[in-house]
Amino acid sequence: MISLEYFLEVAISYLLIAFFQIKNPADAGFFGESIQQIKH
Fold first, then answer.
1. By residue range, what is the domain housing residue 20?
2. Which domain of life is it from (predicted)?
């Protein structure tokens, strides 16, 4: 069972990635990699 806190953290992280992809793809790539490392 996934906790609500974890789900919200992941959801917010993906929203930040989407935002940074619009502003700066390089930054989005960095955040995307760090989140992949956390998830795996």
1. 4-39
2. Bacteria
